[in-house]
Amino acid sequence: MRKKISRILFAVSIMVLLVSCKNTKQKLQEYVVEYNNTAKSFKAENVTLTTARGYINDDKIELRFETNLEQNEPNKVAANASFPELLKEMIHKNQIPKELIEEGVRFDVYFLANDNTVLVKEILDKEAVVVLLKK
Fold this sequence. Notes:
By secondary structure, the protein is α+β, with helices and mostly antiparallel strands.
């Protein structure tokens, strides 16, 4: 009886171990779903909506930040100054997980004007994150 219980416990523990080991593509999918589920509570200056889209075959996540800003030069200059700070804050809060970036996932991040044109675009990969966090 003890042998049977030991075997069952061993089998269950192996299954738990295998299930808890997720690959990068699974983590990417889970991140996108969780990000979009919590996007309604996201707060940042001028941001009206944020969404994530995952590209599993490309190991890429696209983050979009829609704003109430008009597309003009003063807003572009202001966005170029504030957007990297927002990204650094998100990395520090693990809203953009360094773990995924270290596993090779690239984040294409867009800060959009109120007409959905791009004010600022950043690509976050291993090298870009190191540079961004040093600023």
